[in-house]
Structures are given as C-alpha cells and as structure tokens.
Amino acid sequence: MLRAGIIGLPNVGKSTLFNALTAQSSALAANYPFATIEPNVGVVSVPDERLEPLARLVKTEKIVPATVEFLDIAGLVRGASKGEGLGNQFLANIRETDTVVQVVRCFEDENIVHVEGAIDPVRDIETIQIELALADLATAERRREKAQKNLKSGDKVARQELDVLDKLQPALEAGRSARTVTLTDDERAVARNFFLLTTKPTIYAANVEESALTNIDDNPRVQAVREIAAKEAAECVVNCAQLEADLVALPPEERLD
What we know:
The chain is α/β, with parallel strands linked by helices. It has 9 helices and 6 strands; from the N terminus they run E-H-E-H-E-H-E-H-H-H-E-H-E-H-H. A 6-stranded mixed β-sheet has the order 2-3-1-4-5-6, sandwiched between helices. The model is unreliable at about 25-35 (pLDDT under 50).
C-alpha cells in the first residue's frame, strides 16, 4: 500500500485537504501552528472502473481496489532540520512515507494567519526545500564517513556510494532536492539506500480559494508553483481544499451538482 505524506508550512490547508481526501473530519483544522502533532492517518480506496469488467472476465466475486494511506503531518517551520518546532518528528514522519504531497498556500484569508506574515508560494516551497535538503545533507555526510571507512577495506560498494554522494552533496549544500540531480539507473539504485527525504516523488498541491478556480491559468501564484514543479519534474495539482472538504459532508448525489 502506498503511503503518502501531506506536508507543508502551518496553516496552509494540510488537515483540510486530508479530511477531503479521506472523507472524514478527524483532522483538526485550526488557525494556529502545530494544530497537528501526531500525524492523522486515513486509508482511501482508489476507484478504478476497469476492475469490474476484469472481475467478470476472470469470474471472481471479490474485487479489492488499490489503496493509499494518507498521513497528515505536522507543519514545518524554519529551522526544522535543527529541531525547531516539531522538526525532528516532522522529518521522521516524512521518512516513513513513499511519496510526498506538499500543500502550498495560494489563497488569501485574513482570518487565517500565515507564519511568515504574507502569502508567497515560492518562499514557502524554498523554506521546506531547504530544511529537507539540510536534513539530507546531514544524512549524506554520515554515509560518506561510513563509505570512506569501508573503502579502506576494499569495499567496492563503498566506491559506488562515494561516487553518487559526489553528485548529490553539491545539490544538497545548495539547498536543492536530490531528485533534481541527474543519475543513471545504477546510481539511483545506490541512492535509494541513503533514504534521502528529497528523493521522494513529490506532488505540489496549490491550495486556492474557491473564487480562483474559474481562472487558474491566470493566477500568478499557481503559475509560480507550476514552474517550480516543472523544473523538478514533479507533479502539480490545483485545488480548493476547503471546498472539497465541504463537499465531503454532502450526500454523494449532491456532491456532483
């Protein structure tokens, strides 16, 4: 089962999106940082219209759809890689996931404070990017020390690890994600053993207000998020988490309307 961690700065709509995705209201969506401490967890079935005809073809009565486990992880703040806020717990929770959904605030709401004082998607993405890269840099430095020791005993794997680290560390030192570094298939296999946070596949969820859904392509904040995603070969989806969460409370037939 795929585990997807929902991350982002405080007050960007992580818990609201989690509630919408999991069709529940267990995650506390509040107007203050660290409303979420322990990650909320929800398992969601993935609808697939191809399953029913396949079930008829193989003559089975039991249909088991794919599932995704979503984790609503505590908000990250500047200095998380050094333990600020809930930094250590935040990073540990991300490490347990297969993929990351980074919620980026693109909506205006004077009733919901922003920890940085103003809405700026690019700055917010960079804040999280840098903190994750710094955490990965510490991991890479420890792996380098270990590989250098093993190399003295003639360990061939250690040589491969050092060659990959030579490519990854400059990017991490610059605050960039490891996934932006071009690696061969063999090098990626070596890098997987480092368990770096910034190698995880990432989806940017640009969270907009409901009124912005009619002109998404003209929204400069959305465009900024899309540009960052394109540079990283990441995905970008645009949604209004609050609207989706509100729709979950309606009967299924009314949701479509």
